Amino acid sequence: MNTKRLLAGLVFVAILAIGGAGQKAPAKKPSPPSTAGKQGCADLLTQHEMNRCAQEEYKKADAALNRAYQQAMAKLSPEHKSKLKTAQLAWIQFRDAHCDCEAFTFDGGSMEPLIKFTCLDSVTKQRTQQIKSLASDAGR
């Protein structure tokens, strides 16, 4: 009888040890960043943080695009300014429709904003380079 109790006790202790060994200490919850750091959004843990970071990255890219656009407009002739304005308005329509299309795969899901803002960021950075090149060519 004592052997049975001893064996039952050992089994109980083994089960507790195995159950506890697989558990990890609770991870320290990082404080959400107010802006995207130098490393971008890659090290964030929650979908909400990633969505917000992608939105902030896009806002920075949009501000850079607006600066490049204003600098280009300052260098162009009135006729060339009119053409750039027409092209830019058409590009904005394209950008929005294109990124809506990319994000639609995740329509209604928690990743939808991340996909949309990442697309907006990428396409906007490309457009910024195009406008900088246009301004550089016009300045010759």
Task: Describe it.
By secondary structure, the chain is mainly alpha-helical. Helix content is 74%, strand content 0%. It has 4 helices and no strands. The chain has helices spanning 2-21, 47-75, 78-104, 112-138. The chain is elongated, with a radius of gyration of 27 Å. The chain starts with a helix and ends with a helix.
Features:
single chain, 140 residues, mainly alpha
Low-confidence stretches: 6-36
Instruction: Tell me the helix content.
Output: over 70%
C-alpha-based Rg, rounded: 27 Å
Order of helical and strand elements: HHHH
Q: Please tally the β strands and state the result.
A: 0
Overall residue-averaged pLDDT value: 82
Percentage beta strand: under 5%
Structural class: mainly alpha
User: With helices defined by DSSP (H or I, 4 residues minimum), what is the helix count?
Assistant: 4
Described by strand count, sense and barrel closure, the largest sheet is:
none
Give a brief outline of the structure.
This protein is an all-alpha fold and 140 residues long.
Q: What is the topology?
A:
Blueprint: H1 2-21, H2 47-75, H3 78-104, H4 112-138
Helix pairs in contact: 2-4, 3-4
